């Protein structure tokens, strides 16, 4: 009888209808596949049971998070090779349901079941979110934000570095430093907003306070930063006190729907709108519009997905939704611009910085890998593995143009005069 790796590889290739581009090492120590290919380690039969119980991305994610699957060699190369089987299957590629109509495929699945053994499918890893209640209520949004951001400030310090900025940096060159690129991003946002001393800035989704500190210290504005994360708020307040900026910055644990103390001269929303949800996006844009003074500016920095030929067929990424950003939704750039305009904004500038996010994510992955044992102690092995996979896969998604990120500058243009307050040559920030 063939060893476990050869049997597993052959059966999987029959089911998928393609040759696996990786080498497999099975739980019995056997290996099969191209000798120079990256190594996919199947540590136990439990990994196979997870895949059989939940075929596709979610089963793979569960096996990865639980440590039943691993990768030896370059993580990016392996994910790139596997992406054609998971994320980038051609439209005409056969689905599993279609494949199961073929007798030889059904026989291969029965072979996988025998190879997996008779035990029941294991429970999902504890890091997996179980959705409860309606999407995007105050309660469910607070719970989703807590899942992602209340992992521990010490863990995020490892990943993000001293800047503690958890959004796409702005790189002058790939050889620059993450800290310089994050500082340049914050400065870019401030200049697009045209911040001047004495103005009021609302920072929606303020994170650990980096934007608030930069805007107050470098541009002399007063800032209100809001977040739903208790850990972020505590960290930001301590940081602000150390900077001597408590007279100019207020950090609130508050939902954007509950802010009532406008008008503000400017609003920054950096990496926050992805959490709003498609059904609530127009109301979100209307809320921000109402909080701005006439002539005030909004800088919306947001990840975008590519539009589908059939938008009704779009579905959330199972791994991201279950382990990373519960209830998060990405929209095409055109949809975001349309919703901002429907809310009353005049969109004045759109800048795509997709390549910048790939560079940023690779730096975060390098930070995590460099301090991996401590990261696992702080967040737990499963959560650390979630972040490693999510950031590495996201870097590839940006590099291959599966997703993008854009800064959209919009103005609450006065109804009477139509004067935007923008310079004739607006891109002076370049």
Automatic annotation (TrEMBL):
Keywords: Lipid metabolism, Methyltransferase, S-adenosyl-L-methionine, Transferase. SUPFAM superfamilies: S-adenosyl-L-methionine-dependent methyltransferases. Transmembrane segments: none annotated. It is an enzyme of class 2 (transferase). Its EC number is 2.1.1.-. The keyword Methyltransferase applies. The keyword Repeat does not apply. Residues 155-414 form the Polyketide synthase-like methyltransferase domain. Signal peptide: none annotated. GO terms for molecular function: methyltransferase activity. GO terms for biological process: methylation. PANTHER family: CYCLOPROPANE-FATTY-ACYL-PHOSPHOLIPID SYNTHASE. Belongs to the CFA/CMAS family. This is Class I SAM-dependent methyltransferase. It comes from Streptomyces broussonetiae. The lineage of its organism: Bacteria, Bacillati, Actinomycetota, Actinomycetes, Kitasatosporales.
């Amino acid at each position: 009888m063939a060893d476990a790796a050869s049997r597993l590889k052959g059966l999987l290739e029959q089911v998928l209808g393609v040759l696996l581009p990786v080498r497999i090492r099975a739980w019995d120590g056997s290996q099969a596949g191209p000798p120079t290919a990256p190594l996919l380690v199947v540590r136990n039969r439990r990994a196979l049971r997870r895949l059989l119980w939940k075929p596709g991305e979610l089963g793979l994610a569960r096996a990865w998070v639980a440590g039943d699957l691993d990768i030896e060699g370059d993580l990016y190369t392996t994910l790139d090779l596997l992406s054609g089987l998971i994320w980038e299957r051609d439209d005409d590629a056969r689905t599993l349901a279609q494949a199961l109509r073929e007798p030889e495929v059904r026989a291969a699945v029965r072979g996988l079941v025998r190879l997996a053994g008779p035990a029941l499918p294991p429970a999902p890893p504890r890091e997996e979110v179980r959705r409860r209640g309606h999407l995007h209520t105050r309660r469910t949004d607070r719970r989703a934000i807590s899942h992602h951001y209340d992992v521990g400030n010490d863990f995020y310090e490892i990943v993000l570095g001293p800047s503690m900025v958890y959004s796409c940096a702005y790189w002058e060159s790939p050889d620059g430093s993450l800290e310089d690129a994050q500082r340049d991003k914050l400065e870019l946002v401030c200049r697009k907003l045209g911040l001047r001393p004495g103005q009021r800035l609302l920072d929606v989704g303020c994170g650990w306070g980096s934007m608030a500190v930069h805007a107050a210290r470098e541009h002399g504005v007063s800032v209100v930063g809001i977040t739903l994360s208790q850990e972020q708020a505590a960290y930001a307040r301590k940081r602000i006190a150390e900077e001597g900026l408590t007279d100019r910055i207020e950090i609130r644990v508050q939902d954007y729907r509950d802010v009532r103390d406008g008008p503000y001269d400017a609003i920054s929303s950096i990496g926050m709108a992805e959490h709003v949800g498609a059904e609530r996006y127009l109301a979100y844009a209307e809320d921000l519009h109402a909080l701005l003074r006439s002539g005030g500016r909004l800088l919306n920095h947001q990840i975008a997905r590519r539009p589908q030929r059939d938008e009704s067929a779009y579905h959330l990424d199972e791994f991201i939704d279950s382990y990373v950003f519960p209830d998060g939704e990405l929209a095409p750039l055109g949809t975001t611009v349309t919703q901002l305009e429907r809310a009353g904004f005049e969109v004045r500038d759109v800048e795509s910085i997709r390549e910048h996010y790939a560079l940023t994510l690779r730096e975060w992955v390098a930070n995590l890998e460099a301090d991996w044992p401590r990261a696992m102690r702080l967040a737990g092995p499963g959560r650390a593995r979630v972040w490693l996979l999510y950031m590495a896969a996201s870097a590839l998604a940006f590099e291959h143009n599966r997703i993008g990120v854009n800064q959209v500058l919009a103005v609450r243009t006065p109804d009477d005069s139509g004067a935007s307050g923008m310079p004739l040559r607006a891109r002076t920030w370049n």
